Amino acid sequence: MPDFSTARRFMVDGQIRPSSVTDWRIIDAMRAVPREAFVPESQSALAYLDLDLDVSEAGPVKRYLLKPAVTARLLQSANLQPTDRVLVVGCATGYLPAIVARLVDQVVATESEASMAAEASQILGTLGVSNVRVQQAGSAEGFPATAPYDAIILNGATELVPLELYRQLQDGGRLVGVFALGRTPRAEIVTRSDDDFGSRPLFDTSVPVLPGLERPKGFVF
């Protein structure tokens, strides 16, 4: 039986803290949430490695848990507050919403694949996470029924400018994610001020693109 608690501590000490993550709320959350619960049993030994972990098995659409350090850096950049309402886009099996749930008041998590949305709900319920609502919805759609949001987090990259998601931010709200719009993918933060949206680069990184946020076929940059 793998010692997951030790692996979790090694993940934090070897991947999260060396990545300039200093927010102890995030560090504590990532120490507490059992990442192995969100991956297929056949891949549980890989749960704490520094990689984007495919959790879709034989599914038609590939879905991933992002690298732990990238996840932590995005969360720190979002400057999440305890009273925030947050939208997680492309939640896969629910790991990122489970982390966010420890940092904020309410979480809405969308997932385009119905079977995976159901799996995320089941895992979160088993772990007793009560402040996350999982909805089946396309990545580009967000979930306007409960907008506006204080923060939106993309659990993957976008090759498009996700304007519909921008519109679901409240004034002063933040969206963080990896933007693969050009030759160099990079994490960015987008902030809303009235009807204006300003962006700022955070760090270069490459992660899998979320279904529904792919560049149209035939597009040439």
UniProtKB/TrEMBL annotation:
One MF term in the entry's GO annotations: protein-L-isoaspartate (D-aspartate) O-methyltransferase activity
Coiled coil: none
Presence of keyword Transferase: yes
GO biological process, one term: methylation
GO cellular component terms, A-Z: cytoplasm
Alphabetical UniProt keywords: Methyltransferase, Transferase
Pfam families in alphabetical order: PCMT
The family this protein is said to belong to: Belongs to the methyltransferase superfamily. L-isoaspartyl/D-aspartyl protein methyltransferase family.
Protein's name in the database: Protein-L-isoaspartate O-methyltransferase
Species, as recorded: Rhodopseudomonas palustris (strain BisB18)
